[in-house]
Write a structure and sequence with these properties.
Helix content is 35%, strand content 15%. The chain is α/β, with parallel strands linked by helices. The two termini are 29 Å apart.
Length: 430
Amino acid sequence: MTSDPKHTGDLKFSDLNLDKRLLDAISNIGFEYCTPIQAETLPWTLACEDLIGQAQTGTGKTAAFLITAIQTLLETPIPDKDRFASEPRVLALAPTRELAMQIAKDAEQLCQYTGHNVVTVVGGMNYDKQRDQLQNEIVDILVATPGRLIDFLGSQDVFLDQVDILILDEADRMLDMGFIPDVKRIIRKCTPKDDRQTLLFSATFNQDVLNLASMWTSNAEFVEIEPEQKTAERVEQTVYLLGEDEKLQVLVNYLKRPEVDKAIVFANRRDQCRDLEEDLKNQGVKVSLMSGEIAQNKRLRTLDQFKKGNIQVLVATDVAGRGIHVNGVTHVFNYNLPDNAEDYVHRIGRTGRAGSKGVSISLAGEDDSFTLPAIETYINQKLKTEVPDDTLRAPLEQPAITRKRGGRRSSGGGGRPQGGRGGSQRQRRN
């Protein structure tokens, strides 16, 4: 969860009249002051109002909605004898497995003294274990991705007509990933919107997201938190202008610098990430892949190895990268600049976390350079551009892998030419 001393206001969690068990958990995690999104939203959501919140990743919105949910559970307890398995009281929907796992982890931390049960249902992990939890445990907070939840609804292993709080996180990403039909089906199974509290969060709000928000919420308060700077103040950003055939050698030579402890390398497409992982392994880099096509249990193992330092570099797509919440990432590399300026902000936000400084290096070939103006406009600053020095252009020890497609030369270790861009009703508190 995010607690950034530079982004806190004057509101303390102890000012919010929270249950002591929840307050003790918040204090134990190390939180004292609310971040702006928490200070703006909690007075509304703790009063049981629906809310539509616009905030970037890393602003503390997860804690905001979880604190609301847990406080509600504490204030309106239902005796176990009146509860049944398969009937969660809180449902949090997230677009990706990584985000769902992170929300669940945060929820478990906040529930450490309250005794509430958090269950996660996501694709790519043990289906039978998840079904067993749903069938045999009283579920207080259910965190789910849409596809796997649809499976369990179809098999009648979960029922949503007792949901008191519905949380929709990263609604814009759900829209981008094509999940909205599934989400609509899920919401039709939930308690009617006038009988539940609905909290919807999104990094961006286009008209499609706003239309959905109006359908799913009732008299919702709208809160928008614009970051003081859309890019992290503590991230030093540099763009190297180079040829496509120089990208790999510049990247490898930079990764070998002693100050690069943990790094994430972003590319725009899955096939580019696969090729890049292979190239880096060929150069002796301790690297692993994070993308949607990797099985969830393997991704979790990879993330654990990355945290422990057994892996130095992760190669990731944007969707997988948004689920990487690891302190101590010293460098982020953009092997390609993203088409979407907002994705650039999400990428560099993987470093410079928890009060540390970070470095972002973008490798801009001819195609990438066209996206630079849009990124600079979005972040409201001019990015430093330079040509890589001779040490970064040094020949690689191993020749680059030659592939039939992409036409990369095997001598000199350059990069590959880039193709196309790629029914218990809500008990309101007074």
